[in-house]
UniProtKB/TrEMBL annotation:
It comes from Flammeovirga yaeyamensis. This is 5-methyltetrahydropteroyltriglutamate--homocysteine methyltransferase. Coiled coil: none annotated. 5-methyltetrahydropteroyltri-L-glutamate binds at residues 15-18, 116, 121, 575, 619. One of its GO terms (molecular function) is zinc ion binding. InterPro entries: Cbl-indep_Met_Synth_N, Cobalamin-indep_Met_synthase, Met_Synth_C/arc, UROD/MetE-like_sf. Gene3D superfamilies: 3.20.20.210. Belongs to the vitamin-B12 independent methionine synthase family. It catalyses: 5-methyltetrahydropteroyltri-L-glutamate + L-homocysteine = tetrahydropteroyltri-L-glutamate + L-methionine. Pathway: Amino-acid biosynthesis; L-methionine biosynthesis via de novo pathway; L-methionine from L-homocysteine (MetE route): step 1/1. L-homocysteine binds at residues 445-447, 498, 613.
Length: 773
């Protein structure tokens, strides 16, 4: 029996990659230094996994693994080919331009679209395909170079790559009249070049990740999967191929997969444990197929229960023998914090909770420990097993976990608590009187730039270097400056800037019972954007107000409405590491009641506009449509519980970003937010079609410029965007705003962008009013 992994966190134990990327983008280090830091992270990662039989290579990326393939196969959007010719960009400049956009005195090119990696909070760059797209490889091949690099460092690795079907499936067609999977034959030729070179340099095996197989059964995907892996088996018979799928079962794709000429099949037994019985009992399961058992949760932080894992392993071993079994995490550990041992004595993790946790490094160790236990005649007497079960039992019996008052409140929820007093049409009249907003109201999404000074003062306060009063005064000054700036450029609905907040989920989790936190539990969201998800270990409860002080202070500074800013229950759930000892919907209802209490307190404090962000609403959607309605029912209900305790004259906003809305638009409408803001800039208003076709009844702010790019949009571009938006959505329903929060941007570009946005809106009001007249 062997152990393997196929993805380790790429960010570095001390976030070395983030720091290096941001220094490179700021021109504080050169490309050689950035490349050197990347090599150092890769070597340390291989060393950290050296106890395993199979260590992955090519799981590292400077930005995103799909972007790596776009660049490797030279399938760039046409606008970037033109940019490359015009600006003579070097390799790294072009690579990062794809992800971040490019702007100088002579060029202004928008970045490629981002969206969520299946149902995770990781964002990938969406490939853009044309009818005449051709794939080619003209540069050193990343997967080959990193395999060679590992070999020089003394590590024989398992090269791992996103499979061709998933790569094409996750892209989008730019031209009409073709399907992106029509490009498969040409793409296969480029994949074959990669395999040729890997073989040339001594590789004997490779793993292809095809998570598109976790989606609903699709005959087109099935035919393409057959074509691809029959082709590889015929052309490269000496290569052992692992097919990896994760985040769900193979489902209706299982029959297709079991007929493939592959060496190893990977199973996510955390998300779908029952599939092992389907496979072992399937008439097409053959005596040569090896199974990679994904029994360690790659997406959560809870210690593996060795008793349950050994039951599964022993059952499979009895059926196929130990030499055809590989023990593995359920998916790449990209989604896990790196190492619990980085949490020092000053760690924020509750001391009773810490023994229940397992991060990427511990998950690697758990695999090796399970391998040891399987080989033992009396595994249940072994110290490794006994120690594991002590920790598992202590969590089950802990008084920290259960709060009977919270459980009773959820149990007694009534339908009335998830309904506003009146319908939107009636509320809109009252809100118009209360807020007195112009046509095309302007606002921003919530956060404003978190400067070095902001981060420095937060750090000083947390380390006890400045007093609470000093820190509070600093935050008040930042809020005051933000309000004055927004007034000076004539924004209609202001925000306080969220300077007191670290992360939009972590900030709330720190103030809610049932949560604990890490000091170093960073996980990549995209590029150099990392988050430290809270850990929900028990029943959730709000003991005191969380945001009222800063929001009420901001409102006291101005006659204009200021938004109270909250994170919604579904997003807090999705962007946390959630307890796995009760259904997720129960935990979500607990969070929704805590947010409801905060919304009511904000209204009492004089806030007339309250935004409850739900950017992860679609992210929680199960991968298979048969399971959608159950999720959508409790997710919508959770949002409405949090938002429905206010009077009709209080305007409720929500925000969603980087999502596909078409297939859940009815549920979004059912949330009944008075105003929804969405990301539209990178998709060039494509996402707005769902709202337009549905005739969305409430108000909507399509984000008119991309905050994930340093580019400053022009007044003309934003005016053009507003003009296009009003074709899809009636003018009286439209708001004008950026596509997301401005936390990661600098003040110079933020001020220029917001001022241009307001000026574009004023011109639009003049133009549209004249036309109406």
């Amino acid at each position: 029996m062997k152990t393997r992994n196929f993805g380790f966190p790429r960010i570095g134990a001390k976030r070395e990659l983030k720091k290096a990327l941001e220094q490179f983008w700021a021109k504080e280090i050169d490309a050689a230094k950035l490349i050197e830091i990347g090599k150092d992270i890769r070597k340390k990662n291989w060393e950290a996994q050296s106890i395993l039989d199979d260590i992955p290579s090519n799981d590292f990326s400077f930005y995103d693994q799909i972007l790596d393939l776009i660049y490797t196969f030279d399938c760039l959007p046409k606008r970037f080919r033109q940019l490359q010719q015009k600006e003579n960009l070097n390799d790294l400049e072009l690579y990062f331009a794809l992800a971040r956009g490019f702007q100088n005195e002579t060029s202004d090119v928008k970045a490629m679209e981002m969206t969520k990696w299946f149902d995770t909070n990781y964002h990938f760059i969406v490939p853009e395909f044309y009818k005449n797209t051709q794939f080619s490889i003209s540069k050193p091949i990343k997967i080959v170079e990193e395999y060679k690099e590992a070999k020089v460092s003394g590590f024989e690795t398992l090269p791992t790559i996103i499979g061709p079907v998933t790569f094409l499936w996750l892209g989008k067609e730019i031209d009409k009249g073709f399907h992106r999977l029509d490009l498969l034959d040409d793409l296969l030729a480029s994949y074959s070049v990669i395999l040729d070179q890997l073989l040339e340099h001594g590789a004997s095996k490779i793993q292809f990740d095809e998570p598109c197989l976790a989606l609903d059964e699709n005959p087109l995907i099935q035919e393409c999967i057959k074509k691809v892996y029959q082709h590889f088996a015929k052309e490269f018979p000496q290569l052992d191929i692992t097919l990896g799928n994760y985040f769900d079962c193979y489902g209706g794709n299982l029959t297709t997969v079991l007929q493939l000429p592959i060496h190893t099949l990977h199973l996510d037994l955390v998300r779908c444990g029952e599939q092992i019985n389907d496979i072992l009992n399937h008439e097409l399961f053959n005596e040569n197929l090896h199974l990679s058992l994904g029994i360690i949760d790659g997406r959560n932080v809870w210690k593996n229960d060795f008793r349950k894992s050994l039951e599964v392993i022993k059952k499979v071993e009895a059926s196929i023998g130990s030499d055809r079994i590989l023990l593995s995490p359920s998916c790449s550990l990209l989604h896990s914090p790196i190492d619990i041992n980085l949490e020092d004595e000053q760690s924020k993790i509750h001391p009773e909770v810490k023994p229940w946790l397992s991060f990427a490094q511990q998950k690697i160790e758990e695999l090796e420990q399970l391998k040891v236990l399987v080989a033992e005649k009396e595994p249940y007497q072994h110290p490794l097993y006994v120690s594991n079960q002590i920790d598992i039992q202590s969590r089950i019996t802990s008084e920290l976990v259960n709060n009977l008052k919270v459980q009773e409140r959820v149990k007694n929820l009534s339908a009335k608590e998830s309904q506003r007093a009146s319908d939107f049409k009636s509320r809109k009249v009252q809100q118009a009187v209360a807020l007195q907003l112009p046509l095309l109201p302007t606002t921003s999404i919530g956060s404003l730039p978190q400067t070095k000074e902001v981060r420095k003062n937060r750090s000083l306060f947390k380390r006890g270097k400045i007093t609470h009063e000093q820190y509070s005064d600093f935050i008040k000054n930042e809020i005051k400056d933000a309000i004055r700036f927004q007034e000076s450029i004539d924004v209609d609905v202001l925000v306080h800037g969220e300077f007191e907040r670290n992360d939009m989920v972590e900030f709330f989790g720190e103030q809610l019972d049932g949560f604990t936190f890490t000091s170093h539990g960073w996980v990549q969201s995209f590029g150099s954007r990392y988050v430290k998800p809270p850990i929900i270990y028990g029943d959730v409860h709000r003991s005191e107000a969380m945001t009222v002080k800063e929001s009420a202070y901001a409102q006291s500074l101005t006659e204009r409405p200021v938004k109270g800013m909250l994170t919604g229950p579904v997003t807090i759930l999705q962007w946390s590491f959630v307890r796995d000892d009760q259904p997720r919907h129960k935990t979500c209802k607990q969070i929704s009641l805590a947010i409801r209490d905060e919304v009511i307190d904000l209204e009492k404090a004089g806030l007339k506009v309250i935004q409850i962000d739900e950017p992860a609403f679609r992210e929680g959607l199960p991968l298979r449509k048969g399971e959608w309605q159950s999720y959508l029912d409790w997710a919508v209900d959770s949002f409405k519980i949090s938002s429905s305790g206010v009077k009709d004259g209080t305007q409720i906003h929500t925000h969603m970003c980087y999502s596909k809305f078409n297939d859940i638009i009815k549920s979004i409408a059912a949330m009944d937010a008075d105003v929804i803001t969405i990301e539209c800039s990178r998709s060039q208003l494509h996402l707005l079609n769902a709202f337009s076709n549905f005739k969305y009844p409430n108000e909507i702010g399509p984000g008119i410029y991309d905050i994930h790019s340093p580019n400053v949009p022009s007044v003309y571009d934003m005016l053009d965007f507003i003009n296009k938006a009003k074709i899809k959505i009636p003018l009286e329903q439209l708001w004008v705003n950026p596509d997301c929060g401005l936390k990661t941007r600098g003040w110079t570009e933020t001020k220029a962008s917001l001022e241009a946005m307001v000026n574009a809106t004023k011109k639009a009001r003049e133009l549209f009013t004249e036309k109406v007249s």
